[in-house]
Design a protein that fits this description.
Elements (H helix, E strand, L loop, with lengths): L13 H11 L10 H11 L6 E4 L6 H7 L6 E5 L2 H11 L7 E4 L12 E7 L1 H5 L5 H17 E11 L3 H13 L3 E7 L12 E7 L12 E5 L6 E3 L2 H20 L8 E7 L6 E9 L11 E5 L8 H4 L1 H11 L3 E7 L7 H14 L14 E3 L7 E9 L3 E9 L5 E7 L6 E6 L36 H8 L15 E5 L5 H9 L4 E6 L2 H10 L8 E5 L2 H11 L4 E6 L10 E3 L7 H10 E13 L2 H14 L2 E6 L5 E7 L8 H15 L12 H4 L4 E2 L1
Parallel strand pairs: 1-2, 1-4, 2-3, 4-5, 6-8, 12-13, 12-14, 19-20, 19-22, 20-21, 22-24
Antiparallel strand pairs: 5-7, 6-7, 8-9, 10-11, 11-13, 15-16, 16-17, 17-18, 23-24, 24-26, 25-26, 25-27
Helix pairs in contact: 7-8, 15-16, 16-17
Amino acid sequence: MDLLPRSPGEFGSARYWDRFFRQRGKRPFEWYGAFPELCPVLHKYVRPRDKVLVVGCGNSELSEQMYDMGMCEDIMNIDISDAVIHQMQEQSRSKRPKMSYLVMDMLQMDFPDAQFQVVLDKGTLDAILTDEEEATLAKVDKMFAEISRVLQVGGRYLCVSLAQAHVLKKAVEYFSQEGWVVRVHQVANSGDKQQFVLPIFIYVMTKFRKILGSAPQILEICQEEQEKPMRVESTEQLVAAVKDRQHYALLCSQLSKMPCGEQVSLDLCDRESGRPRYTLHVVDSPSVKPSRDNHFAIFIIPQGRETEWLFGMEEGRKQLATSAGFRRLVTVALHREQHYEGMAGIQAELSAKVMELAPPGLPARQQVPFLSAGGDIGVRAVRHCDTSPLSGEYVVEDVKGDGTCYFRRLIFLHNRNVVQSEARLLPSMPPQGQKKRRKDKKKPSPAEPPAAIDKSYLCCEHHKAMVAGLCLLGGPNPLPGDEAMLVVGLGGGSLPLFIHDYFSQAHVAVVEIDPSMLEVATRWFGFSQGDRMQVHVSDGLDYVAKLAAEAPAHYDAIMFDVDSKDLMVGMSCPPPAFVEKPFLQKVKTILKPEGVFMLNLVCRDARLKESVLATLREVFPLLYARRIEGEVNEILFCQPSPEGRWDTTELGTRAQALEGALRQPGRPWDSSYMLADVLQAIRIL
């Protein structure tokens, strides 16, 4: 049976609708939503004594259900189709004596002015406003003008709609310019998400007397049962807010059809600021055998630990979901700009929203557990935030790690999921913010000295690999001497500090392009300069080029740990210019013949990575690589002469000898840091 029009224009034709309702018979046709879904919103705006006009009523049961439930009785229903009005009159005449049906065109209504307190439209505006042609818009203007005419001041035009952008924009612009208050409600959908994914909205336009001059627009949006409306500044913001809710509803529906192993992520934003408050990843584990209690769980990632491999990487989240033993796990990351009232507060805030992400077939009244590492939400205290002209916005924060240790981190906010630098704090000075500060206490002064840094501990695995790589330095004895070392990229200064303290005769030069980072390292990470440690604020490219011309064969070891600011390149470390052949030849020039050049390579583009390796091989005859487990990082060890080649066993022996020399009495050494173990996975390229 063909019930659809041949063209959108037929939606305005009485002839089409007569044929439609004759073919459909007495079966009610509901454009959008059943009465139980619409009732909570309608109940707020329809009073028992109101005179209600339903435009384009069709054979919907909405009016009958409003009447039967006692919401109101004085209801006038109009429609352009004579067939459906006759059908509805016969159906309600004896049961609902105070309800009326009339054949009438809502573009030319016969009612006197200010006749009704409520005009209700369920899908009629959507049926008329099928495009933005001039004739269509003129018809909609007539419709709105007639609705405005028959409504009393203080009356409400309630429009049930799918809120297509052009439909919502037209309604909001028209009535807000008339001085009306516009509020948009999202309707709770209790239907089958697999069959119907688009949410339903009700526009509530309240009529006010038009004020001469420019009156402020009042535009608001309410989400489902949310009591307090959210004010927005413009029509564009209102349309964008509705679009976000439509995308979320579509996502929830698509989760039921998500391919095995695929992960979906989304941000839930703070309603006041609009900034992300929670980042959710939905992870399915089809390999987990189904049981009564393992369908669905929520995992709250402790603050500050979202960058760890287990929580921050796709493979890590898969492992977490499998080990947790749930077929669907939603991981929740907390944002540093937001305040949270503990696990119970987060659970209360998220419970309703995350249930929309539940897998199909979740048993009714199934208790969904909220999990976390250690059972709490962690500790994060932002110690300093600023903006650098070169590095952009950044923060220095103290976080609680796995166990009792605290760490200080430098984060560039343009890449907030990557820890730029990290140092362990000495246990004698726990970070500010560990306990909730009373409101009557003053915040710590920005000039307050930082907590003590544990300079003996290297947090970053790639830094450990670089230190271990110093056993490649030429000669039969790898024991430290008066080596000259160059580190390009300061960050928090952990790597040059460790080398300075443990290679007690070495001279370390550090090149850092951003003077703000020198200030951060000095103030917050315990970095200091001296006779054997000098920082040059310069572009690493310029510094190396100048040195190549003036002082060749100058350094025993050169280390590059430089991030790229260009996020469009598939290589986040180093910037592409640092691995171009002419520049690498200059690096080789300032390196001693028995020296070693180390490069922290972070490259997700396989072709680009292979190109970088090929260029390095052209310049350096001997190339080793050490992949950092669980990370994209790979440390490349490059030597200018092929004569210094060592096999894995020899490297292990040299690493043990170097470690023995570094582990001196009275000098702290982390027992988990074994140089030979670090180099076990090294390979020759």
